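How it folds:
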Amino acid sequence: MDKDARYFTHDDNARTDHKIEAMMSKYGVEGYGRYWIIIENLRADRTHKIQEKSYVYESLAKQMRCPVDEIKQFIKDCIAEYELFVQDDGFFYSESLLRRMAKLEAMRDKNRTAAYIMHEKYHHNITKDRNEPED
C-alpha cells in the first residue's frame, strides 16, 4: 500500500450526521464500521469509485466478515435510503469523499508548485553566486 492511500480527511463528528444516524438506527455500530470500510476502499481507488461487480461485493464481504447478500443490501440502503453513496453507470461513490479528495489534490498541487518555485529560486541563486566574481 502506498503511503498516500492512508490519508483522507473526515469530520470527527461524522456519526452525528443525520444520514449516518439513520443508517445506524437500522445497522448499528456495525453499519458505521461497514460504512468506513467502504469509504476506505473508495479512498484507495484512483477514481474514488467502486465498480458494482460480483467480485467486488465478495471482497467487501470478506473484509467485513459477513455474507455477500448483506453487503449488497447495506450498499443498496446507503444509496437509496440514506443517500450516503451515489450510484452511477455501474459504479457507486461518496460525493463527500470526492469533494474532500478534490480539495486534497488542489492543496497538493499548490504545494508542488510552491516547492518547484523554491527549488528554481535556490538553484538560480547558487548559479548566480558561482558566476559572481570574487573580491
Notes: The first helix runs from residue 18 to 44. Helices lie at 18-44, 54-64, 68-80, 95-131.
